Amino acid sequence: xxxxxxxxxxxxxxxxxxxxxxxxxxxxxxxxxxxxxxxxxxxxxxxxxxxxxxxxxxxxxxxxxxxxxxxxxxxxxxxxxxxxxxxxxxxxxxxxxxxxxxxxxxxxxxxxxxxxxxxxxxxxxxxxxxxxxxxxxxxxxxxxxxxxxxxxxxxxxxxxxxxxxxxxxxxxxxxxxxxxxxxxxxxxxxxxxxxxxxxxxxxxxxxxxxxxxxxxxxxxxxxxxxxxxxxxxxxxxxxxxxxxxxxxxxxxxxxxxxxxxxxxxxxxxxxxxxxxxxxxxxxxxxxxxxxxxxxxxxxxxxxxxxxxxxxxxxxxxxxxxxxxxxxxxxxxx
Length: 333
Description:
InterPro entries: Bact_response_regulator, CheC-like_sf, CheY-like_superfamily, Sig_transdc_resp-reg_receiver. Pfam families: Response_reg (PF00072). Keywords: Chemotaxis, Phosphoprotein. The chain is globular and about 70 Å long. By secondary structure, it is of the alpha/beta class. Strands 6, 7, 8, 9, 10, 11, 12 and 13 form an eight-stranded antiparallel sheet that branches. A five-stranded parallel sheet has the order 2-1-3-4-5, sandwiched between helices. The model has no long low-confidence stretch (mean pLDDT 91). Helices cover 38% and strands 23% of the residues.
């Protein structure tokens, strides 16, 4: 049997790396893990990345920057991008930058096999020796935040795809911020987002499904709604009523798409309550029910449209009594 083929799995999510290792376990590979693009480049220079599975949204050096360096330094790595950013433009860009293919998250063993076969890579791979145990990846015990950062990354990408199609734009996506916070911090956090956005244009919408409940809040940056109106070729003066309608329309796209994609991954069908515009500096209902929010799973996402001064923050808050159900829903991942 030949020596194992050196493979790098580059993703800032330990869950995503764990899933990819599981998808590749049938082949004779020597796997190196990297949590950002710079670490992947170092592994490639060391001859450890004949095949590189590369995420796009990562700290320190993202996937786009890593692809640029690989091409600039002519590193001998076959790159397959594996990402939750499924905008057609994202796929087009990475293929133009030298990636041989694109695999859509969430990672699925059959999808990985089919992709490797279509790229002509599968014939290079040998089956893993029967007597060779599959090495367990490090950090197998993941915190709730680790799971929901990756799940949110995928759901965020689905929402961005919807928004990109609606406005015919490319949406830049940051790394989701996932943390457990005290419910008393919710009002202060929303206030800080409003200050950073320079705007009080905020929409709040409750959601519920399979013992999981919470609130989604969308905060637009100053002048973003006016620019969105121009993108959508809305005629006439930007009246308060028209701003409310635009806020409702974009919120419906982002919140519905996010909850739909998240629910698909954890097998929950979320229902959504009526959206509410928070006028002035009013606060969401979570601030009036502290007993349900003593410990809150808080997910913060950002969306920014390329070549336009348009940005918004989406905040997802899950109640304390949802945490056990959220944890249980990760058991199959």
